[in-house]
Write the C-alpha cells for this entry.
Amino acid sequence: MPSTCLLWMRRDLRLHDNPALHRARAEFDVVIPVFILDDALLHGRYASSPRAQFLFGCLRALDQELHARGCGLVLRRGAPEHELAKLAEQTGAGAVFWTSDVSPYALRRDRAVTAALQERGVRAVPNTGTYARDVSKVRKDDGEMYTVFTPYWKAWERLAARDIYGAPRAMAPLPRGLDRGELPGGVRAPGGTLGAPVCEPGEAAGREALTRWLDGPVDRYGDRHDTLAGGTSVLSPYLRWGCLSARECELRARRRGTPGADAWVRQLAWRDFYASVLLEHPENVRREFQPKFRSLSWHEDADALDAWKRGETGFPIVDAGMRQLAATGWMHNRARMVVGSFLTKDLHLDWRAGEQHFAALLLDGEPAQNNGNWQWIASTGVDPAPYFRRIFNPILQQRKFDPDGAYVRRWVPELAAVPDNRLAEPWTMTEAEQRDARCAIGLDYPAPIVDHADERKRAMDRYREASAGVA
Ligand SMILES: Cc1cc2nc3c(=O)[nH]c(=O)nc-3n(C[C@H](O)[C@H](O)[C@H](O)COP(=O)(O)OP(=O)(O)OC[C@H]3O[C@@H](n4cnc5c(N)ncnc54)[C@H](O)[C@@H]3O)c2cc1C
C-alpha cells in the first residue's frame, strides 16, 4: 500500500525550490497537492479582485506543471481545517505539509488546521520557503527581533541559508476517482478588473522574467532602481505568490556577482525584514508601531481621498503612480513612496486608507510588506527616521526620478505635450503654454488640490504635537 500525504499549497505556487514539496516527496510515495479557496481571504479584509484573478492564473499554471509530471492540483473551497481533515480522511493521508507564513490570520488558521489534523492522528508539517531566510531565526544575540533594517541585514547575511531544490521530473498520479474540484469564474471583491496586468501569472512566466532580469538589467540596479520609467525587476507578484523562491532568486543573483545584483539581494532582505516585524508585532496590522504616533490626528476628507485614488490630485508624479496602480496592479517603489507621503503628509489622511486601497489593487499586495512600508512612509513604523526626512516634495521627486518625463507622460497622457520644464508643475504654465500643450489646467488636467509647502508645515506640526504628547 503506497503511503500518501497532502501538500497544502498557499503562497508557494511553484515546483522549483519548494522545501515543503521536497520533504513531502522524500517521506511519502504519493503527494496530493491541494489549494483551498478560503472565503476568509477571498472576501476578507484584504480582498482584491485583481489579485484573485492573478492567483487563479497561477493555480491554472501550477495545475499544468503538475499535469506534465503525471499529477495535478486538487481544489477545495471552505475552511482549511475542515477541508484538509476531510481530504486527509478520504485519501488516507498520514501528513499534511505546507510552507509557513507570518500574518496573524495565517498563524491562527495554521493553528486551527494543526489541531484538527492532530485530533485525527494526521501529522501537521510546516516548512520554511516563503522567505530567503527562516525569518523567525534572524535575531539579536539576546534573542530579540530587530526593528532597524541595517543591523537586521548584517545578521541576515551571517545566518546560514539552505540549499535550493530542483523541480521534480515526475510525480505519482492522483488517487483514481478523487474529485479535483474547480476554480470559480471570478470573485466579487474590491479592485475591479485591471486593464493591463503588469505580468503574466504562473511559475514558468516568473522564471522567464527572473532569467531575463538576471541576464543583464540587474547589473544596473544600483543606479537605476529609482528611475520611475524602469530599472527594477517587477518580480514582486511572483514572489508574493511564491511562483518564485526568494532563496533561489538570492542565490542566482549572488552567482551573477555584480554590484547591481548585490544591491538587489539587499531588497530581498527588506522583504524578509518586514515579515519578521509582522511575526513579532502582529498588532501592527491595526495600529502604529511607535506608541508616540498612535495619537496622531488624521483628517477625514472623502473628496481628497477619491482624488488621490483616481489619480487626479494635480501633482503629475502622484497621479501617474495612482493610475499605474489602477491599470496594472503594480506601482514602482519610488512612486509608492511619493504617493504614500502625499496621502499622509500633504492630505493628512490616515495611512490605513492608503494601505487598504493598495491591498485592493496590488498583485503583490500582502500584509507584511504593505503594512511595513505604509508605516515606514507614514513615519510611524520600524526603522525609524525623523518624520521630516520622509516628507517628500512631489515636484523635486519628479524632476529627480523622471527627468525626461517618460513615466508621467505614459500614465497621464493629457500632459503628453507639456514642455519638460513645466511637467512637474503644470499649473505654472502660461495660458499660451497651456494652449500649445493642449492642456488647460482645471479643465483637461486638475489644478493642484493642495499647496505642498503649506501642507508640509501642517504635517510637521501634527507630527511634532503627537511626539510631544500634545495631540
Ligand atoms: C507604501 C508602500 C506599499 C508597499 N506595498 C507592498 C506590498 O504590498 N507588497 C510588496 O511586495 N511590496 C510592497 N512595497 C515594496 C516595494 O514597493 C515593492 O516590493 C517593489 O516595488 C516591487 O517591485 P520590484 O519587484 O520591481 O522590486 P525590486 O526593486 O526589483 O526588488 C526585488 C524584490 O525585493 C522586494 N522588495 C523591494 N523593495 C522592498 C520594500 N521596500 N519592502 C519590502 N520588499 C521589497 C520585493 O519582493 C521585490 O520584488 C510597498 C512599498 C511602499 C512604499
The beta strands are 4-9, 30-37, 74-77, 95-99, 123-127.
